[in-house]
Specification:
Layout lengths: L2 H24 L3 E2 L5 E2 L14 H11 L62 H10 L8 H8 L3 H10 L6 H13 L7 H6 L8 H12 L16 E3 L30 E3 L21 H11 L7 H12 L4 E2 L2 E2 L4
Antiparallel strand pairs: 1-2, 3-4, 5-6
Length: 333
């Protein structure tokens, strides 16, 4: 490769990295869930949500209902297991027999805090995501008119909808109930959240050191906000190209026409909440352990070889992001 080409490559990598750093610099100081201003780019998960509990219960019922899929083969819970961090622990989602999945199954915990959904980040709301997933040939493989007709044959379910929604059981109300349930899938009270709220003994010394390294290395430039991700797109492979992204913008799950990098794979920055329990990692499940994922990120996103000691401390910090679902630690579900 000629010096000129190498120089251009470095400039492009630096420009992309600068976009992430600018996002960090320009992010305003945030406010914690308890009120006081904090000089943090990360905020605790709210303890109160104010959801309609009737819709949450109805949505949970639908989450486990296979009638939302073609031929009643799968439900949402077929790929999102509570005991597996609301993932399936597989590198690539199995999809359907005739249309296998192409990407890793993202967790649904805290999904309501994401402003971008799916690996490509092209979906902006849970309602839009649910509407698409039901008819996605690699997910539920159904057709909404068929789904609604089938559900309306269930007298008990129809009655439940009529008690809550003026329009009864319709496509829009089914989607709304599912979205309300997904918004309820929050995991507050992680040790790190307690630390942010003032309990400095909530996390270990190594976790505190890992948090400082997480900031110093610039990881927080992209992994910030209440979900430590889920709110922006980023090129995967700023300094070099990971094997799983060698196809560039045609990589499965990559955002199309993002305007971020025309020659690289671009994905939604995933949330790091409960990351200890959502392996394997990345769009292709290529990182089997959290330490391997950290190493890959520091190499390809930061262009640095980070000492093993630092990786261990950053992992300790990430482990402190494991929260509780309905009072039970995600690791114990």
């Amino acid at each position: 490769m000629s010096p000129t080409i190498r120089s251009v490559g470095r400039k492009k990598s630096s420009a992309i990295a600068l976009l992430c750093l600018l996002a960090f610099v320009l992010t305003p100081h945030l406010v914690s869930a308890t009120g006081p201003a904090v000089d943090e780019r990360i905020t605790p998960i709210p303890l109160e949500l104010g959801l309609d509990e009737r819709k949450v219960v109805l949505g949970r019922r639908l989450f486990f209902d296979s009638r939302l899929s073609g031929d009643n083969r799968v439900s949402c819970a077929s790929c999102h297991f509570f005991e597996k961090g609301l993932t399936d622990e597989m590198p690539i989602s199995p999809g359907l027999p005739e249309n296998p999945g192409l990407t890793n199954t993202p967790t649904l915990f805290n999904v309501g805090f994401n402003s971008k959904l799916g690996w490509d980040g092209q979906t902006q709301t849970l309602e839009e995501q649910i509407e698409r997933v039901v008819e996605n040939k690699r997910a539920m493989g159904a057709h909404w008119p068929d789904v609604i007709a089938l559900l309306r044959g269930d007298t008990d379910l129809t009655t439940a909808f009529q008690k809550i929604y003026d329009g009864g059981l319709e496509r829009e109300t089914v989607i709304n109930a599912l979205a309300e349930f997904e918004k309820s899938l929050t995991t507050p009270n992680a040790p790190f959240d307690r630390y942010l709220r003032g309990d400095k003994a909530a996390i270990s010394d190594d976790a505190q050191a890992g948090y400082r390294l997480f900031e110093e290395y610039g990881c927080v430039s992209c992994h910030q906000g209440v979900n430590l991700g889920g709110n922006m797109l980023g090129a995967f492979g700023i300094f070099g190209t990971p094997l799983g992204s060698a196809a560039g913008p045609t990589t499965p799950g990559s955002a199309k026409n993002s305007g971020i990098a025309d020659d690289r794979a671009v994905f939604r920055v995933p949330s790091l909440r409960n990351v200890q329990h959502t392996a394997p990692y990345f769009h292709d499940g290529s990182a089997k352990t959290l330490s391997a994922a950290i190493s890959a990120m520091t190499r390809y996103q930061l262009g640095r070889d980070v000492p093993d000691e630092d990786i261990t401390k950053i992992e300790a910090f990430l482990n402190s992001l494991t929260g509780e679902y309905q009072g039970i630690s995600v690791g114990d579900l």
